[in-house]
Amino acid sequence: MTIDSKQFIPYICIMGIFMSIDFGEKRCGLAITDSLNTCAFALDTVPTKKIFEYLNDFFKINKPEIFVIGEPKQKDNSNSQIESLIKKFSRDFKKRFPSVKVHRHDERFTSKIAKRFLINSGAKRKIRHNKSIIDKISATIILQDFLDKYKKI
What was the pLDDT predicted at 64? Predict the structure, then answer.
């Protein structure tokens, strides 16, 4: 079977990127995918109080198809303390951006994985302890894990 590039290229151009957030009380880590939704990349860390301002500006240029919100769970599968703030954020997000599909995705241990990644990569102590970098990497891990599961659907 051959693929007609005249049909394929416009399809690629209309595919929306996916975006994720590692929501926190003080700051939020953000990640996005490439245009084919195969790889996640760290985007930015934004103070939580300015997250909607940032997203408004970002969405003027980029039109994400799916927005993945991290779902923090305890080891016993109970909700984390921050869950009530995340639910409020999710409701507000859906009101502001009704055309974007929202998915929740388990984010257990992403901060620990991000710290381990920085250690294994040889990052200096100052970088390893920079929480904004950890938040961006955590958002990237959430999104990549979502992509890996999404491809199986």
Answer: 92
